[in-house]
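Supplementary Methods. Inverse-folding protocol.

Structures were first reduced to a discrete structure-token string of length 278. This string, shown here, constituted the complete conditioning input.
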């Protein structure tokens, strides 16, 4: 089967240039004194987040003045717009970044009518650039990516994240975490949904779940997982959309097993019998 690539090579070039520039700005300020504000009780934003996003918006305005932008700090259309829309997270893993923990990245996707076409995620501390084009495969620093071959949960390493309102939902969030701890080889919590997804695509992690996410958290990484041969849905198995605020991404083989654990946990919380048909 021949691979399809995006008709305009400037789209992927712009995506790569944007996240690499973002990484340079991130590293220039990393570990130094910076302004950190709160958007919520534990939801942080730094002056670097805003500087990176302004850089990106200026670049898109110059090259593609008719394209829309949805990004974390300065907003955009919450609904899926018609035509091209760049979905950008200037620093995914801001809490890590603000604390000097080197697990963060810039994440970018170009969606057309809500469908991801191009993605780029850059981790500047490891100099790892993850890219994908719909129908063209996924790559890490130019080398093809592929998901893992883990066949069972007990042979799998999983990863998740916690929402910013976790203080009010500890039993729910930690309860599901515990359900997977009891089934999997290991469960991790890294603090960057975009990197979690890229690690699934690279075969480093076998499955990732998280709820209460924003489009900029998952738009880029979800396409990279799909193009690496993985499976991406919502946490109840419905078709994935970046506006759907949740994701389950796996190597494909353990996907149904993870869906079953989620279903069993949710039904138990509601006092209903688990659905054993999944």
């Amino acid at each position: 089967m021949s691979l399809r690539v995006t008709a305009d090579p400037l789209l992927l070039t712009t995506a790569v240039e944007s996240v690499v520039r973002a990484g340079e700005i991130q590293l220039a300020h990393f570990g130094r004194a910076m302004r950190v504000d709160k958007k919520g009780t534990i939801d942080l934003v730094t002056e670097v987040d805003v500087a990176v996003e302004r850089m990106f918006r200026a670049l898109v305005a110059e090259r593609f003045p008719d394209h829309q932008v949805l990004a974390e700090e300065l907003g955009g259309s919450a609904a899926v717009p018609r035509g091209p829309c760049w979905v950008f997270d200037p620093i995914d893993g801001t809490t890590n970044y603000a604390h000097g923990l080197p697990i963060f990245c810039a994440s970018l996707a170009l969606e057309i009518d809500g469908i991801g076409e191009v993605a780029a995620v850059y981790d500047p501390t490891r100099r790892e650039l993850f890219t994908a084009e719909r129908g063209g495969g996924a790559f890490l620093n130019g080398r093809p990516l592929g998901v893992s071959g883990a066949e069972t949960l007990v042979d799998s390493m999983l990863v998740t994240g916690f929402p910013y309102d976790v203080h009010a939902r500890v039993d729910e969030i930690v309860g599901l975490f515990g359900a997977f701890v009891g089934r999997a080889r290991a469960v991790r919590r890294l603090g960057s949904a975009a990197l979690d997804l890229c690690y699934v695509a690279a075969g480093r992690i076998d499955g990732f779940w998280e709820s209460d996410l924003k489009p900029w958290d998952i738009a880029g990484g979800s396409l990279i997982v799909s193009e690496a041969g993985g499976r991406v849905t919502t946490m109840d198995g419905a078709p994935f959309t970046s506006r759907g605020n949740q994701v389950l991404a796996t190597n494909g083989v353990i996907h149904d097993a993870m869906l079953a654990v989620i279903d069993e946990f949710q039904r138990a919380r509601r006092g209903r019998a688990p659905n054993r048909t999944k």
